[in-house]
Amino acid sequence: MSLETIAPITLEAIELRRIALPLVSPFRTSFGTETARDILLVRAITAHGEGWGECVAGNDPLYSSEYVEAAEHVLRHHLIPRLAAHRSCLDAHEIASILEPVKDHRMAKGALEAAVLDAQLRGAGVNLGEHLGAVRDRVPSGVSVGIMNSLDELERVVGGYLADGYVRIKLKIEPGWDLEPVGMVRRVFGPHVPLQVDANTAYTRDDGAHLARLDEFGLLLIEQPLPEDDVTGHALIAREVRTPICLDESIVSRHAAIDAIERGACSIINIKAGRVGGYLEAVAVHDACAERGVPVWCGGMLETGIGRAMNLALAALPNFTITGDVSASDRFWKHDVVTSPVRLDAGHVHLPSGAGTGVEIDRDFLQSVTTSAVTISW
Ligand code: OSB
Ligand code: MG
Description:
Blueprint: E1 11-29, E2 32-46, E3 49-55, H1 68-83, H2 92-99, H3 106-124, H4 128-132, E4 138-140, E5 142-145, H5 151-164, E6 168-172, H6 179-189, E7 195-198, H7 208-212, E8 222-223, H8 231-240, E9 245-247, H9 254-262, E10 268-271, H10 273-276, H11 279-291, E11 296-298, H12 305-315, E12 348-350, H13 363-369, E13 370-377
Helix pairs in contact: 1-3, 2-3, 5-6, 9-11
The chain binds 2-succinylbenzoate and magnesium ion.
């Protein structure tokens, strides 16, 4: 990675703000059902303006060990205090190494880095996509479809998204909801709809033969069939199925990505900045994959317009050659927290062009959904 240097900032305070946002419809995965999100936003307040980061930790520790309450705690008591000694001249590019002694808590670290990076870029008048190395000003938009109560309901929902213009469908699967829903979508919507599945760790090493039955449906990939710590298991599954294996939960860093690739566990990687500790590590994962000829795509974590704008910047990098979960704001939210929500335009979503993330906060709406706000100042 050789990103241009940007002027450091003087950090005056950090605000940790929690908001409550209902989802437009329940989102069910193999690990649970979400109907509303309790989201932690991080605001970096500097001498020359502010920046915003979004923590993607869920309400409960079901996707990973992180969850929103723990993220706020570790930020307040462990991560933010470590910035104190550096706050008068802080560069987002130093944050990962400053916070490195604290193990894991990558979503919390990533949100803090994002807030400082946004503040720094706004101060310097540089756009985030430009800074990260974006080579496109719009990216194709895929949608992640939860597990439904019936095949009829799934047919209605997928039909709706295709009518909206989404160019790729991802179906959440689990044992008992896999061959039938995938077969139905292929039968009803045809063989040419770009289609993939995400198991969120719901299968075991013994399920290789079963997962190989998905091969006939011509899927783009099978995402994370086994538990995150079973890299070798994924390598075994990858030999049993023809469909490419993609990892999500297992890839927590550049090192983890290189290890999984070298062990033959995956031929595609889903990159989520929160999962790897921030957008800068996400770029490093992107670069490591590019060097090894492994294509990547941008995952999503039910973000508001803040995280969504950052994901778009990342998804515009050159090795993001596979359509990501970068859907429009209205896929999840009736009302977004930014003044210009992400909109679908002919199957694509556009990168905001202003400084930093390029999005502005809808302050009145944000205030109306805020459940708590704590400011840590020095
Ligand atoms: O596994 O990709 C996942 C949402 C929450 C947690 C994990 C995942 C997801 C999604 C949603 O699939 C993707 C999105 O935000 O559009
Ligand atoms: Mg996933």
